[in-house]
User: What shape does this take?
Amino acid sequence: MAIIDINIPIEDAVTDGSSNPVTSNAVFDALALKANTADLGATAFSNDYNDLDNLPAVTSGTVTSVGLTMPSAFTVANTPITSSGDIAVTGAGLANQYIRGDGTLATFPTSGGGGNNVNYYLNGGTAASVATYYQMSKTAVIGTGVDFSLAGNGLISQWLTDVGDPNVTEIPSGNWNFEMFFSASSSGGVPKFYIELLKYSGGVFTSIANNSLTPEAITSGVTIDLYLTSVPVPLTSLAIGDRLAIRVYIVDSVLGRTITHHTQDSHLCQITTTFSSGLSSINGLTKQTQYLAVGTSGTDFAINSAIDTHTFNLPTASATNRGALSSANWSTFNGKMDVPTTFRWTLDLKAVLTGDIYPNQTCTIASVTNLVGAPTTTILKNGAAYTFGGSIVSGDKITVTVSVASVIDLNFTI
Assistant: This one.
């Protein structure tokens, strides 16, 4: 058999996809860049991350949910969160409240009467004048915090105003609002508190109002939290010397649990009352709303103040009343003819040298004129010598004597 060698130039057999031939060197260069399939790992064919060699070690954590806590002024919903979603935060207060710097709620002061309402503070570091009571004052003591604790149920703290406070004769009706701070020694259950308002008079405490039927729940367990409650207070009469007292009670607590009432420092307990901080009284009246009226009673101008009304009495003037001239009396007065302030009385003493006259009104003799014959004239009043300008009243007897027969004029002034 004959062997035939066929030699085809490589540049005539291989192209680069165009009409240009590829040189043998280029082919070898391209082949050299290719990877052998035997050298490729499984990932090159599966595209699966887990087919990689030498995967990094990943340690599983223990967190299965994330929660959010906020101060008491806020309410948190959808916490903790265990999957996709939103944790919602909303305000927990009312429209008339604001958020304090410590994240708690407080009530804006409200106005009434002559000014803003009077606020009291519970100053736990100041003892009142009555044993076991502490100061309830219009002036807050910031100072160091003072706590009052009680195991179980009952009276936890009691408070009394200073001597001479509130110095009014009436408590206006309405809600008294209380801001109190409490905590418990343990969570669970629903311990509650309520408040009683009393007056202290002559060493005796008399209850005025309480909210024992609607006690406020202490819900934050061991966390110190702000609690708001109100006591409806009726219109109440007070003596000027009466003082006010507050008693705080714990109910529905369990045996072994201690409730703590926190005061002062960052836990200022505040009471918003129905008292006005404006004028405390007008002419002895202490009603927050007072009225002015006009009257005509009495015999002289006077102001009569009763309950909530000040009546300015200006009577109509008369023979017995000092007051305002009525329009009818003014017309009568204006229609009168002016009365002369002087008059002359002529005496003819030619037949006799003496004569008596009796003036019928208060007057004086100012002078004697027209002395015909130039007599010496003597004047007596009720038998005694009269001096010009001296007072003469109705009924007085005036005796005039001349030394020689004459006609004279007596000049009177009214």
Notes: The two ends are 189 Å apart (CA to CA). The chain is about 5% helix and 40% strand. Helices lie at 10-13, 24-33, 43-46, 327-334. The longest strand covers residues 115-127.
